[in-house]
Design brief:
Blueprint lengths: L13 H15 L3 E6 L7 E6 L5 E6 L3 H5 L13 E6 L13 E5 L4 E5 L8 H23 L11
Parallel strand pairs: 3-4, 4-5
Antiparallel strand pairs: 1-2, 2-3, 5-6
Amino acid sequence: MPDDLLQTSATLQPGQLLARGVCRHLRAMNFVCVEELVPVRGLRVDVMALGPKGEVWVVECKSSRADFQSDHKWQGYLEWCDRFFWAVDGDFPTDLLPNETGLILADAYDAEIVRMGPENKLAAARRKVMVQKFARTAAMRLQALRDPTAGFGAGFG
């Protein structure tokens, strides 16, 4: 199986641990998630969540002040989702985060939505593109787990 799909808690980076907790919480809300999804060349979201009514949420996981301050692309994610959230741990200085975005407090095991991100509904054509990217990414990753020698090179993920 691909090594990057089999990481344990001991090998995950802090942001990946936050993403795991976020995905667990969103799953309990009947969302499904894909981590590190590329909506368009040059952007990679930490978590994209697809809700039971087709809603698309993006969650950016920030493990430190420096991690947040070095992120100059996050506003580019807004046009690819219905709601945008930051996920941080309990020690993160949340006053740094823009008030017009959602806020999730998370750890490696769970999360809690503290502030709901404002809704900016995607246009139907863009929603279709995002749902297709989500489905293809999830299916390719599952297939790579089942058949790791199938050759998932260019275009994987």
